[in-house]
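Project outcomes to date are best conveyed with an example. Our students and postdoctoral researchers have been running inverse folding experiments weekly, and each run begins with a structure described purely in tokens. The record below, which covers 502 residues, was selected by the lab manager from last quarter's runs and is presented without edits.
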């Protein structure tokens, strides 16, 4: 478990955790060992560590000591970023340990950056979670220089401990010269502000310090970063002797003459989600277009009054490409009547136009079962919840899910999934996914997963978000952010599922 909490709470968690240990350095020892392991795994030829005056800087010094034992002290440079007004405790520590400390020398660093050394690792341990934006002038200029000489050099990789220098962990703001790190190594927890500005935290590694749930969860809401372990936890492996009827059926209600592609993308992703069967209820005028692209999909031609025709569908997705005309509104109202009157049990996913129509109905959530997931983007969420600003968005999301008892997936650079006082945060922004149809792909994925036996809609949302995000990463890798499309993301979904199976 990777807890996502505030800087203040991180300190309290660490303090309370250490009460049970005589050795008060146990957390730091675990952190230093974990950091060194990550760095040494890269097989560096040289390591440059920039350290500051606080605990983060002390971590960096001790990491340097461990790494020196493996690659030799001559290949590890410890660079002080401590000015005259700062604490000298780390300089005194370094002196006591016999470390060779170097001053921040631009000529030396430039020569290092231009050297023919095969692989150089740069470690930023200047400022930690106690930092506040903005940087003092002299440090800001130093970071500006480091960005110039180190960033995007093929043989150089930059790691920051907990946060990159220049990032304010209290509010997510950044200094104009924030360090451009390739990867952030988070120690024991993830600072909650990192998801406010996820562009800075594109790639994250974690060092587990041994915190348990009872060490962290003193508040009523539990924050967690979406990790492979969380995605795998409720992922259903297929038996070699099962047949398709054992994996449920997914019904998609959506698509229209104006938006035929939405239904197509949704059904395509559903068909590769593991569901036993995908059907679609849509305009007859676009059926032919869909079947040409996804022959595995069947078409639903019944009505909501015939409740027996819905019995086999373990999940229903409604809204993709539906539009907001009179016909669309009629479908939504009929669907609500069906849900309120039926004894059939479904996981329900409500997206796009369906949400916009529902937002016109007072207390609409009371008409839906707790097995319902809604998937708005921030604008749609504002329409259905009506808030004045975007501050404390995590609190707004969790408050909404508590109020309605529904599962909420808020789409954005940092996708949030919330239900039952738990917030799962996907901290993997991808500018290439800011394209038409991405939400339709996600809905199809989640709807297909939600059809699987004993799958809760919240777990389907978590797994679907993970698969969608990682398929997007692969699409970006091979297609580039500019040109990748929703169809490209679909093409990489099987690879992500394959990885989950292993």
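After processing, the design step wrote out the following sequence:
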């Amino acid at each position: 478990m990777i807890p996502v909490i505030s800087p203040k709470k991180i300190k309290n968690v660490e303090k309370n955790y250490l009460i049970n240990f005589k050795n008060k350095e146990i957390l730091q020892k675990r952190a230093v060992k974990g950091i060194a392991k990550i760095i040494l795994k890269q097989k560096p030829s040289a390591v440059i560590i920039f350290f500051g005056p606080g605990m983060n800087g002390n971590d960096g010094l001790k990491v340097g000591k461990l790494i020196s034992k493996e690659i030799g002290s001559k290949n590890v440079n410890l660079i002080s970023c401590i000015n005259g007004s700062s604490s000298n405790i780390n300089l005194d520590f370094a002196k006591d340990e016999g470390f060779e400390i170097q001053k921040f020398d631009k000529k030396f660093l430039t020569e290092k950056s231009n050297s023919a050394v095969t692989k150089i690792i740069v470690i930023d341990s200047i400022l930690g979670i106690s930092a506040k934006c903005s940087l003092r002038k002299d440090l800001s200029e130093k970071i500006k220089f480091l960005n110039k000489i180190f960033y995007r050099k093929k043989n150089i990789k930059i790691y920051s401990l907990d946060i990159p220098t220049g990032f304010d962990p209290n509010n997510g703001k950044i200094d104009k010269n924030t360090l451009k790190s390739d990867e952030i190594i988070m120690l024991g927890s993830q600072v909650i502000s990192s998801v406010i500005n996820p562009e800075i935290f594109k790639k994250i590694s974690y060092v587990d310090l041994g915190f348990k749930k009872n060490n962290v969860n003193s508040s009523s809401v539990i924050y967690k970063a979406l990790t492979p372990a969380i995605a795998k936890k409720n992922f259903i492996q297929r038996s070699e002797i099962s047949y398709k009827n054992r994996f449920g059926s997914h019904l998609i209600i959506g698509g229209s003459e104006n938006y035929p592609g939405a239904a197509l993308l949704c059904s395509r992703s559903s068909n590769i989600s593991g569901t036993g069967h995908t059907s679609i209820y849509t305009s007859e005028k676009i059926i032919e277009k869909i079947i040409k692209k996804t022959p595995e999909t069947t078409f639903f031609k019944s009505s909501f009054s015939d409740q027996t025709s819905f019995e086999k569908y373990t999940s229903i997705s409604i809204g993709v490409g539906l539009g907001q005309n009179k016909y669309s509104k009629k479908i939504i109202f009929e669907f609500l009547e069906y849900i309120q009157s039926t004894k059939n049990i479904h996981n329900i996913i409500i997206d796009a136009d369906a949400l916009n129509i529902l937002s016109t109905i007072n207390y609409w959530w009371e008409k839906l079962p707790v097995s319902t997931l809604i998937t708005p983007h921030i604008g749609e969420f504002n329409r259905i919840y009506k808030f004045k600003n975007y501050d404390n968005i995590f609190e707004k999301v969790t408050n909404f899910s508590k109020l309605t008892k529904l599962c909420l997936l808020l789409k954005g650079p940092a996708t949030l999934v919330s239900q039952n006082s738990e917030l799962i945060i996907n901290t993997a922004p991808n500018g290439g996914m800011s394209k038409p149809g991405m939400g339709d792909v996600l809905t199809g994925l989640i709807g297909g997963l939600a059809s699987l036996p004993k799958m809760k809609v919240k777990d389907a949302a978590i797994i679907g978000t993970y698969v969608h995000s990682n398929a997007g990463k692969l699409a970006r890798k091979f297609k580039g952010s500019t040109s990748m499309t929703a169809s490209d993301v679909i093409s990489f979904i099987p690879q992500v599922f394959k990885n989950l199976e292993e």
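The mean pLDDT is 91. The chain has two domains: 4-218, 243-501. The training component of this project remains on track.
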